[in-house]
Amino acid sequence: MARKQGSHSGITGPKVRDAALRLFARHGFAAVSMRQIAAEVGVQAGALYLYTPDKQTLLFDLMQSHMSALLAAWQAEPTGGDATARLDIFARFHIRFHLDRPDAVFLSGMELRNLEPDNFAQIERLRHTYEDHLHAILAEGQATGSFAIADLRLATMALIAMLTGVNTWYRTDGRLSRDQVAALYADMARRAVTR
Amino acid sequence: MARKQGSHSGITGPKVRDAALRLFARHGFAAVSMRQIAAEVGVQAGALYLYTPDKQTLLFDLMQSHMSALLAAWQAEPTGGDATARLDIFARFHIRFHLDRPDAVFLSGMELRNLEPDNFAQIERLRHTYEDHLHAILAEGQATGSFAIADLRLATMALIAMLTGVNTWYRTDGRLSRDQVAALYADMARRAVTR
DNA sequence: CCTTGAACTGAACGCCCGTTCAGTTACTCT
DNA sequence: AGAGTAACTGAACGGGCGTTCAGTTCAAGG
After folding, report:
1. Which of B150, B164, B191 is facing A194, going by the closest CB pair?
2. How far is the CA of B171 from the C1' of C8 (A)?
3. pLDDT by residue (tens digit) across B156-181?
4. Residues near B7 by beta carbon (within 8 Å), at least 6 away in sequence
5. How many Å does it take to go from CA B67 to C1' D4?
6. CA atoms of B174 and B168, how far apart (whole Å)
7. Distance (Å) from CA B6 to C1' D1?
8. Which residues of B touch A162 (CB under 8 A)?
9. Burial (CB count <10 Å: 0-12, 13-18, 19+), residue B195
10. Cβ contacts (< 8 Å) between A29 and chain B: which residues?
């Protein structure tokens, strides 16, 4: 047998990425075989190589897409206001964006060590760029007196870790809505750098 | 060939665990083979089975040891003072303990998904027990008016995530000492739940 | 209607996996 | 000196791995 009906490359391509993302996030990159991904898509393993040159590149593309989407989404957020207002926007944005893509977040946080050096460096650069946006907000607040931060770089890392941590416990069917959680985290973030 | 000289089980056993911990943390559980661990120890793969029934149990034992050590170390910390003082002690303890064992922390955070259901449940219970200690401190501070926390459970998770995040960026040769970092994090943690 | 080519199969490549086990060595105990 | 045994080797087991590729199917274009 070969293909069943109609043109599929526009459908199968995304399905491969979706299946790979879900499986990598759930079981880990090394623990998932190309045959498992293929089975999820409904195809033989060999067919995957029409959509990715190899397994490593598949992982890298997923991470790269995630980080690019994160940066693009942040650029689309409103820019006005003082540092306190911008921190609030950043925190809420971060929480919402991350809650919407648990698999991609999990993957991008966990599988960095499975990237080859060149790919790792590229993803790290994107991650650094994102952190710099928060760093700039904190620096401005520090300069204008809104914030009182002993160590800017440490505060940046601390807030990012706190906010990203939401994905380890949040469940859609829990008692708090996405927006409630975002508001509560934004409040804690502001307090952590204020006074 | 067989064993070279003297009795080795008291030496080889720990060496197996050390090598497994380092390799699992570095490359991930699924990506490390028993032959790689054996090579690190200086032994053939078959000999590992004198020290662990299988690879899964080796992972579980490493995680279990880490969590038990964490709980035991916390029990050994001073207990007096009000909620603010105890939060300070907790935060400094958490940072120091985690900075001292980056591999074990990394492993325990990352490889939960590679545990079989029963083993997973046991580790989760230990983790929950640890989180409850922080939860109790926050609850007391909330009751006495030291803290102003909108959601206790969320605040607990947020602080744990913030504090544990130190391991993702801290380097021994960086500009901040272990104790400086602990003090800075403790201060941010206190502010995040105060006023 | 016939050719083209995109989409996919199915089998094969060499390699590494976790685990088992009979056999070998070197130490300890009597 | 001899027996016993803890520690370990080295080979083997069945199976799954990532990747390649010749061949097959089928929709579309001329």
Report:
1. B191
2. 50
3. 999 999 999 999 999 999 999 999 99
4. none
5. 40
6. 13
7. 21
8. 158-159, 161-162, 165, 192
9. exposed
10. 28, 31
Give Cα B83 distance to the centre of its chain. Answer: 24
Phi, psi of B32 (to 5 degrees): -105, 130
Task: Spell out which chain B residues touch chain A, with contact meaning CB-CB distance below 8 angstroms.
Answer: 26-31, 110, 113-114, 150-151, 154-155, 157-162, 164-166, 168-169, 176, 181, 184-185, 187-189, 191-195
Of A31, A158, A184, the CB nearest to B162: A158
Rounded to 5°, angle at Cα B135 from B129 and B141: 150
Among B98, B154, B194, most A C-beta atoms within 10 A, so best to mutate, is B154
Q: Residue A188's closest CA among B93, B180, B160, B99? A: B160
Orientation of helix B55-75 relative to helix B102-110, angle to 10°: 120
Q: Amino acid identity, residue B80?
A: G
Q: List the pLDDT tens digit at each of the 195 positions of chain B.
A: 455 556 676 889 999 999 999 999 999 999 999 999 999 999 999 999 999 999 999 999 999 999 999 999 999 999 989 999 999 999 999 999 999 999 999 999 999 999 999 999 999 999 999 999 999 999 999 999 999 999 999 999 999 999 999 999 999 999 999 999 999 999 999 999 998
pLDDT tens track for A110-125: 999 999 999 999 999 9
**Residues A123 and A112 sit within 8 Å (Cβ to Cβ):** yes
pTM beyond 0.90: the answer is yes
Quick check: A83 and A92 in contact, CB under 8 A?
no
Closest by alpha carbon to B131, among B81, B184, B183, B70?
A: B70
> Cβ–Cβ of B151/A176 closer than 8 Å?
yes
Strand D proximal to A59 Cβ, under 7 A: no
